[in-house]
Structure formats: structure tokens, C-alpha cells
Specification:
The complex is a heterodimer.
Chain A (H helix, E strand, L loop, with lengths): L4 E9 L2 E2 L14 H10 L5 E5 L4 H17 L4 E4 L5 H9 L4 E4 L1 H5 L2 H10 L4 E9 L10 E5 L4 E6 H11 L3 E6 L11 H10 L4 E4 L5 H8 L6 E4 L1 H4 L5 H10 L9
Parallel strand pairs in A: 1-3, 1-11, 3-4, 4-5, 5-6, 6-9, 9-10, 10-11
Antiparallel strand pairs in A: 1-2, 6-7, 7-8
Helix pairs in contact in A: 1-2, 8-10
Chain B lengths: L1 E4 L7 H9 L4 E4 L2 H6 L2 E4 L5 H10 L2 H11 L3 E4 L1 H4 L4 E2 L4 E2 L6 E5 L16 E6 L1 E2 L14 E6 L1 E5 L5 E7 L1 E9 L2 E4 L7 H13 L8
Parallel strand pairs in B: 1-2, 1-3, 3-4, 4-14, 5-7
Antiparallel strand pairs in B: 5-6, 7-11, 8-10, 9-12, 12-13, 13-14
Classes of the chains: A alpha/beta, B alpha/beta.
Chain lengths: 259, 213
């Protein structure tokens, strides 16, 4: 049967990790290529790069980073952050990424999803969604609203309707980030994940809130999500991917144990 | 020299990068003669069956592939490349290459696991393979290895002789086909970590015969 995926997320700016990532037995590393390689060797099922560079020079550096990553890691990886056009998608995919994640660009121009899916296939297009819990209203019937700019800007779009619409436009996967849970290390937003996951037929990657293997278990159990995005949990040696997977496996979640 | 057949079907450079990594010389080409001159051929592909077949035919690459297959040189199909070697595909109701008897079917709409939970289509992510018999391409690949899949249609060869490996996703489907000098896999060995690279290494050394000499 299909395994649930554990996906480390690396934030990159101007070709460097924005926070150092430290592995057992290694010194602090700011190099996204070496860090991705270590994760690849140590059991990550996929890797997400989130490019927070604003400048076009920074973007060229990111393309170089993607090329260097693709030369030495042989699992899928995606790149997100600031990609707005099919041409930009093409550059990143040709450099070796498996998938492109679009977030604000899709909110501003939903057609980018269908254009990307037509050009490269749905499997290449990940919809990144930042979501905040709000009071249920006529406009936001699910009680979850799509936000951008790290949660500062409310878009007046219902998260569930948005997820379904983007699935229809050709998104192949959804990376669902709860702004409320993000950074708390108190666990994923389980209700949100269940709501979206049970209403779309594409995989959902849960994001935001992971602090312990138990949190990952909670969101992967009972099909609330198909994959879990993690960051600080493993970046600073608190847990290894292996420890997380052994825990999940012990609790009956199928994960890839041989790599 | 390994030739990777180029027919506009997705990102072929990821296959080439994996071959570079294991030290296998390769060339991405749509040149008829270069394909026939290759020592071995990889037939990859991502996308839809209908377009793939028409792109192949417009360059006569279907004929090149058939000729290579009949010559006995080792051929490795990947993903869509694996599907279109069969006789037909339900995707775009496509007439395929008929190198192996059988069809390509869509996963049923109401796909469920053994506990009755609904399964999503496409089948995307890591899954395992149960080999029916040993094969040189899987030498040294641990039995519990998993491989990266992304597909909504699956190969269904008519003869059990062509079923080398099976994968469970709601139904049991053929994830590895073989026919003499041809092996075709539904997953992406170039994205499947070390077990995937091992398969590519084995292919690089394989004579095209069933057993290791």
C-alpha cells in the first residue's frame, strides 16, 4: 500500500538557508544543496524548497541551487515562492524540480494553475494554501479563509471552495498550511486537514504546527492528510526522520522504512 | 551508450541526471539512426497517451522503438513509456504500440483499501513491489524497497508471462512488465532513491537476457 510521506521544508533566500539546519554529527549548515542531500540520505520522502528571495538576481541563484540539488538527490522535490508565470515554472522544472508550488500567484491569477497543468501535467502543480480560522459566514461557510502575505491579508475566499476550485483547474496536490498553527509546535490543525482532505480527490500535505511525532501521527491517521510537512522538528536535531518514521510505523501508519 | 528517446513527453533530463550519477553515458535524442545505434534504450514519458503516440509517430519513433525491441537490445520503459508499449490505452482511447499484449486501464472511481477507506487517484507517492520471479534488473534491490509512482492509469498485460512485479493500490496491478529484452516499470526509478538507482545500474549492465550470465 501507499506510504504516507514525510517532507522537510527548507526556506531559501539568495541561495542560502534562512535558518541554519543542523544535523547530528555535522556542523551548522546553511547550504540548501548539502542539507537536501543529508535529508535524502536520511529518509525524507520528498523535499520542499520555499524561495523567499524577492530579487531577480536571487531567482537566478535559485535556479542554480535547483540544478545542483537535482544532480545529487533522486527523490521528488518541489520549489515554491514567487513563481507567477508558465515560463518561470518551465525554468524551475528544467533545472530539475519535480513540482512547482504556487500560492499567492494562484490567488491573484487562478488561471496559472490550468496553464501550468496543461503545459506540464497536473502532477507538477502543487497548490500552496495559507489558511486562517474565521467565524462562519455566508462568504466563508467552512469557517476557514484563504490568506496571503504570511496571514496579513485576508482574501475573502473560502478555503474549501478554493481547494475544490483549484482541483478543478488542474492542481495535482495541495499543500495546506494553517497560519494559526504555524510555528506553535502544538500540532497540526486537524479539523482543517480533515475538511479539505475528505472533500478533494488529490493528495493533501499538512503544514504548520508539527512539534512531535505524535502530532504527525494525529494528522496522518484516519486520512486527514497524505503527507506531513516538517521543518524545525528535524532542522535542529530534535528528531531524525528515522525516529519519526519508526514512531509512526509503530502506531500503524505505513511509511517508507528502507531508503 | 544508453539512448533516451526524446518525443516531447515530459522532463527527460531527470533520467539523464540519474544515469550521469551512476556513471552511465547517455544521450537524449529523437534521431532515428542514433536510436538504432544505441547499446540500450530507455523509453520514458510523462503526460497523456494520446499525445505521446501522435508525437512518436510524427517522428517515426514508434518504428525506431519497434526495431530496437526486435533487435534484442535491452529496452527500459518508464511510466507513460511503459503504458504505451501495450496494445491500447483507455486514456484518450489510444491505439498503442503493441510490443506487449494487453491494455492500459483507468483506476476505478471508487477505489478503496482493504479497510474500506477511499483511495485517491492519481496513485501518487511511494509504494512497494512484489516480484513474481527474480530478474537481473532487480539484483541487489532489497525486497521491502519502495518506489515513487504518479499515475491514473495502469498497465494490464494479457499474459501472466509478462507480469514481473505487482503493486497494491486498492487493486493489484502490474507495476513491472517484462518481455525478453524489455523491462517496463510504472514507477520512476530516477526519483526512487537508491533502489531506483540500483535498477538503472543493473539496466546499464544487463545483456537483455533473463538471467545473469
Amino acid at each position: 500500500m501507499l506510504s504516507k510521506r514525510i517532507i522537510p521544508c527548507l526556506d531559501v533566500k539568495d541561495g542560502r538557508l534562512t535558518k541554519g539546519v543542523k544535523f547530528k554529527g555535522n556542523v551548522d549548515i546553511g547550504d540548501p544543496v548539502e542539507t537536501a542531500y543529508q535529508y535524502y540520505l536520511h529518509g525524507a520522502d520528498e523535499i520542499v524548497f520555499y524561495d523567499i528571495t524577492a530579487s531577480s538576481e536571487g531567482r537566478d541563484i535559485m535556479i542554480e541551487t535547483v540544478k545542483n540539488v537535482a544532480e545529487k538527490i533522486f527523490i521528488p522535490f518541489s520549489v515554491g515562492g514567487g513563481i507567477k508565470t508558465v515560463e518561470e515554472m518551465r525554468r524551475v522544472l528544467l533545472a530539475g524540480a519535480e513540482k512547482i508550488s504556487v500560492n499567492s500567484a494562484a490567488v491573484q491569477n487562478p488561471e496559472i494553475i490550468s496553464q501550468g497543468a496543461d503545459a506540464f501535467g497536473s502532477q507538477c502543480i502543487v497548490l500552496g494554501m495559507d489558511v486562517k480560522k474565521v467565524p462562519v459566514s455566508e462568504k466563508i461557510p467552512s469557517g476557514y479563509e484563504v490568506v496571503i502575505n504570511g496571514g496579513r491579508k485576508y482574501m475573502g475566499i473560502d478555503a474549501l471552495n478554493w481547494a475544490k476550485r483549484c482541483e478543478g483547474l488542474g492542481a495535482g496536490e495541495i499543500c495546506l498550511n494553517s497560519i494559526d498553527a504555524d510555528g506553535t509546535k502544538e500540532g497540526y490543525e486537524l479539523e482543517l486537514n480533515r475538511l479539505i482532505s475528505s472533500n478533494v480527490n488529490i493528495p493533501v500535505i499538512a503544514s504548520g504546527g508539527a512539534g512531535t511525532p505524535e502530532h504527525i501521527y494525529q494528522v496522518l491517521d484516519d486520512d486527514r492528510a497524505d503527507a506531513a510537512l516538517i521543518a524545525s522538528m528535524t532542522h535542529f536535531n530534535e528528531y531524525t526522520i528515522k525516529e519519526i518514521k519508526e514512531y509512526l510505523s509503530g502506531r500503524g501508519i505505513k511509511v517508507r522504512m528502507n531508503w | 551508450m544508453i539512448v533516451i528517446i526524446d518525443y516531447n513527453a515530459g522532463n527527460l533530463t531527470s533520467v539523464k541526471r540519474a544515469l550521469d550519477y551512476i556513471g552511465a553515458t547517455s544521450l537524449i535524442t529523437s534521431d532515428f539512426k542514433k536510436i538504432l545505434d544505441a547499446d540500450r534504450v530507455i523509453f520514458p514519458g510523462v503526460g497523456a497517451a494520446g499525445k505521446a503516440i501522435s508525437d512518436l509517430k510524427s517522428n517515426r519513433l514508434d518504428l525506431a522503438l519497434k526495431e530496437v525491441f526486435e533487435s534484442g537490445k535491452p529496452v527500459l520503459g518508464i511510466c507513460l513509456g511503459t503504458q504505451i508499449i501495450l496494445e491500447s490505452s483507455q486514456e484518450n482511447n489510444t491505439r498503442c504500440l503493441s510490443l506487449v499484449k494487453g491494455d492500459v486501464l483507468k483506476f476505478p472511481d471508487d477505489l478503496r483499501d482493504t479497510e474500506g477507506r477511499k483511495l485517491k487517484v492519481p496513485h501518487m507517492g511511494w509504494n512497494s513491489i512484489k516480484l513474481k520471479r527474480p530478474h537481473p534488473l532487480f539484483d541487489g534491490v532489497p525486497e521491502d524497497s519502495e518506489f515513487y509512482f504518479v499515475h491514473s492509469y495502469y498497465p494490464a498485460p494479457s499474459s501472466p508471462d509478462n507480469i514481473l512485479g505487482e503493486t497494491l493500490y486498492g487493486i493489484r496491478f502490474t507495476s513491472v512488465l517484462s518481455s525478453g529484452n524489455l523491462v517496463a516499470v510504472q514507477f520512476h526509478p530516477e526519483k526512487s532513491g537508491r533502489p531506483g538507482l540500483k535498477i538503472l545500474e543493473n539496466f546499464y549492465r544487463w545483456s537483455g537476457k533473463k538471467n545473469v550470465e
